[in-house]
Amino acid sequence: MTILQRVAALACLILAFISPSKADDYPSRPIKVIVPFGAGGPTDVFTRVLAEELRKSLGQPLVMENRPGAGTVIGTDSAAKSAPDGYTLLMVSATQTVNETLISHKSYELMRDFVPIAMLFRSELVMVVHPSVPANNVKEFIALAKSKPGQLNYASSGPGSNYHMAGELLKNLTGINIVHVPYRGSTGARNDIVGGQVQMMFDSVPTMAPLIQSGRVRGLGTSGRTRSVALPDIPTLSEAGVPGYEATIWIGMMAPVGTPQPIIDVLNREINKIVSRPDIKESWEKQDAKPDPMSPSQFGAHIQAEIAKWAKLIKANNIQAQ
C-alpha cells in the first residue's frame, strides 16, 4: 500500500468515527431558526409550537428569529450565509419558491445554497368576493369576469405573495382578465375586500372563515386538493370548475448547504415524529394546517416542483417584481 493510499484509508477511518459522533452530540447548544416572516402570523404560531416540541425531544432550545423583509429575501439571505453546522436553520415556504424566478438579483438560490430537512404542513387558501359581486359560485365569477374584461379587481398582500400567485393561477387556467391590486400587507387587502373597494381576494382559511360565516364576504372555492376542514361546505376550485387548480400555503425547514447529513437525519426524524403525533395533527387540522411528513429527498423534490410550477406561471403571465 502506498503512502497516499494509507493516508486515504486513515481519512476514511477518521470520518467513519466523526460522522456518527456529530449526530450523537447534536445539539449541544441552542439552535437558531430564522423565520423570514413577521411575528404573530399563522406561520409564526405553528413554528413556535414545533420549536417547543423539538426543545423537549432534542434537549436544547430553538430560538426563533423573525427576520422579515423584501418578501422573505432578507431572512433567507442571512440563513444562506450562516455556518453549516446545524445551529442555524431556515423556515421555507411557497413564497421563497416564487422568489427563485420573480427576484433574479438575489445572492442565493434555494437548491444551491440550502439542503431540505422536512415539510411541516400544508394549508389552503379561500377565494372570496364581496357580497355585492353578482356571483354565487366560481363558474358564475368566471362568466362575470369574461363579460367584463379588465373591470374586476383582486387584492393581494403584495407581488409574489401566496395570495397574488393564487390569483394569477386562476387567470392562467381560466383565461379571465382581472386586475391585480397589490397592498403592503394582507390587512389592508382584507379591509378593502370587506369594504367593497375590491371585488375578489384569496386569503388564508383561518382568517377568512369568520368573515364568511358572518356574511361579510362570500366564499366561492378553496385552493387545495381536498376540502377545508374549517369550511367543508365550500368546494375546492378544482371541483368548482377549474380542473387542476392547486395553490397551497406550506411551510418546511432547510439548512445551509454543507450541514452534515447525520444532523439533517436527526432533525428530519424528530420533526416527522412531532407532526405525525395524533394530538398535533388534531390541533393543527382544526386550524386548517395539514401535517405532511416527508423525507429530505421527498421535500427536496417538492421544492423543485414548486419552483418549476411558479416559474412557468410567472413567465406565462409576465409577472414583474415591484
What is the CATH superfamily of the largest domain? Answer: Bordetella uptake gene, domain 1
Straight-line N-to-C gap: 63 Å
Please, how many domains? 2
DSSP strand count: 11
Low-confidence segments: 3-21
Structural class determined from secondary elements: alpha/beta
Shape: globular
Question: How would you classify the quaternary structure?
Answer: single chain
How many individual helices? 12
- Major beta sheet summary: 6 strands, mixed
Helix % is 40-55%
On the 0 to 100 scale, the average pLDDT is 90
Radius of gyration: 22 Å
- Strand arrangement within the widest β-sheet reads 2-1-3-10-4-11
CATH architectural type of the largest domain: 3-Layer(aba) Sandwich
Order of helices and strands: HEHEHEHHEEHEHEHEHEEHHEH
Predict the CATH topology of the largest domain. Answer: D-Maltodextrin-Binding Protein, domain 2
Percentage of residues in strands = 15-25%
At the first level of CATH, what is the class of the largest domain?
Answer: Alpha Beta
Report on the structure:
There is one protein chain. The chain has about 325 residues and is α/β, with parallel strands linked by helices. It folds into two domains: about 30-120 and about 250-315, D-Maltodextrin-Binding Protein, domain 2, CATH 3.40.190; about 125-220, D-Maltodextrin-Binding Protein, domain 2, CATH 3.40.190.10. It is about 45% helix and about 20% strand. It has helices at about 5-25, 40-60, 75-80, 95-100, 110-115, 140-145, 160-175, 185-195, 205-215, 260-275, 280-285, 295-315, and strands at about 30-35, 60-65, 90-95, 115-125, 125-130, 155, 180, 200-205, 220, 250-255, 290. The chain has a six-stranded mixed sheet with strand order 2-1-3-10-4-11, sandwiched between helices. A five-stranded mixed sheet has the order 7-6-8-5-9, with helices on both faces. The longest helix is centred in the first third of the chain and has 23 residues, at about 5-25. The radius of gyration is 22 Å and the shape is globular. The termini are far apart.
